[in-house]
Amino acid sequence: MTTLSTPFTKAFGIEHPIVQGGMMWVGRAELAAAVSEAGGLGIITALTQPTPADLVKEIERARELTSKPIGVNLTILPSITPPPYDDYRRAIIDSGITIVETAGANPEPHMEMFKENGVKIIHKCTSVRHAIKAEKVGVDAVSIDGFECAGHPGEDDVPGLVLIPAATQRLSIPVIASGGFADGRGLAAALVLGADGINMGTRFMCTEESPVAESVKQRIVEATELDTELIFRPLKNTARVASNSVSREVVEILNGGGEFADVRDLVAGARGRTVFENGDTEAGIWSVGMVQGLIHDVPSAGDVVRRIVAEAAAELQRASGLIH
């Protein structure tokens, strides 16, 4: 099979420059293992597991499915009752995980323990300034999220076509392009823009191994790039989610001067989890990217990896043929 070798694949010991994003309620053993087994980097989402002990079991389940490298996502967010991050870190290290994707707040408080135990860090950023800071505190790679992405794109509204080259020209560590990627054309474009690989969430959410309900996958297949909403904009905590009756109501309330308390029940995480588990796409808020407009099937995760690498190689060869 064709391979695309980059500084990222060499540094992280994987075959293909394709990362499965760490998605809440989605990044479980079967999906992560399938991506890794195909040569990409699958990622288990730590906080999807209710306790650190459950995370250890989930990592063990993944290890039964593949012997290839697997990463763990640890999202660091301010909270009234924060998760026991120290215990999750210890669970990751004791399980022999050597790749962690951090997201949310500054990863610096977590760096020492991970580095002492030989763990490589990929930090997810939404701006060049945050990526530069992440490099300074010692992360091994950054994943740079353009405005197109699902979840939190930041408040700068810079799309990937500008953000990726802006980041790669300022950083010396590998850069993973995230937000808006679903096929080989995207991977080829990211490499040309200076990135060392791509991170995909929505594309992997819509695969056979993804634990979300089939009706959610079909909704993604049927949707276009126009079928998302940006919620929490007036609160300066923008999030891109699927357009449905709930997200549209949230936008209307906040644009009308409402406060978070007025939408708290609508955006409850438990309701979003119900969407993925029970398949009612109108039951709550759920994250999806604009890239759903490029997704038209529900293949295996392995097929996604292999297809994208082959397509990217073909696109790069086609483009090179334009030079005379």
TrEMBL record:
Lineage, top-rank taxon, reads: Bacteria
- EC number(s)? 1.13.12.16
GO MF = nitronate monooxygenase activity
A Pfam family this protein belongs to?
NMO
Q: Which UniProt keywords apply?
A: Flavoprotein, FMN, Monooxygenase, Oxidoreductase
Top-level enzyme category: oxidoreductase
* Entry keyword Flavoprotein: yes
InterPro entries the UniProt entry points to: Aldolase_TIM, NMO
The name this protein goes by in its record: Nitronate monooxygenase
